[in-house]
Amino acid sequence: MFFILQSALVRVRKVKVHRLLGWFGAGLAVVMVALGFTIAILMGRFDKHVLHIADATTFLSVPFGDMLIFSVLVGLAIYWRRKPEYHRRLLFLSTCALLDAPFGRFDYLFNHSLFFLAVDAVILLGVARDLLVNRRIHIVYRVALPSLVIAQALMVYLWRGAPAWWANIGRALVG
User: Fold this and answer.
1) What are the Cα distances from residue 157, in Å, to 53, 163, 166?
2) Which candidate, 26, 36, 53, 169, has a CA 20 to 30 Å from the CA of 68?
3) How far apart are CA 73 and CA 89, in angstroms?
4) In angstroms, rounded to a whole number, what is the distance separating the alpha carbons of residues 107 and 119?
5) Residues 55 and 163: beta-carbon distance below 8 Å
6) pLDDT tens, position by position, 21-64
7) 150, 151, 94: which is closest to 122 by C-alpha?
8) In terms of pTM, does the model score above 0.70?
9) Which of 45, 3, 55 is nearest to 24 (CA)?
């Protein structure tokens, strides 16, 4: 909702309000990342000790990766806030990066680790918009999308592949 509000403010040329609310958004992002890591650990404990989910400790790679990706993209968007073409795309990507949780609610997508594919499909809508409107893919997408795919593959590997070092970290965090 905040992303839509901010986009609408720019669209109706209320840039001063957009910039003022943007600092609230930056603070909100910091709180979201802190809560994201905390809730991931708490839910990992709940999943392991109450629901007895076997891979609860290694699944931490997904929410941890989400928070890391989100914070990097938002941080870059804040850094490039005076470059609207970068800023807008980075915030779009950061918002999309959090969509794996809602897509993961679909059992088929979750069980086959396809929720990231759904996220990438939404991002490709932004790429398609660039191709249609600007007749080229913006550098933000050319750099970020391959990086995201690599990060997503790593998160799935840490979760499903469960290398011993990652499983040990998960057990230490979840208990």
Assistant:
1) 18, 8, 10
2) 53
3) 9
4) 15
5) no
6) 999 999 999 999 999 999 999 999 999 999 999 999 999 999 99
7) 94
8) yes
9) 3
Q: Domain residues of the chain, as ranges? A: 16-174
Q: How many CB atoms lie within 10 A of CB 141?
A: 21
Sign of CA dihedral 104, 102, 124, 70: negative
pLDDT tens for 100-147 read: 999 999 999 999 989 999 999 999 999 999 999 999 999 999 999 999
Q: From start to end of 39-106, where are the E strands? A: none
Which letter, b or e, does each residue of 108-124 get, where b requires 16 or more Cβ atoms within 10 Å of its Cβ? ebeeebebbeebbeebe
Report pLDDT for 159. Answer: 96
Residue 127, both tokens? 């790429």
CA 58/CA 55 separation, integer angstroms = 5
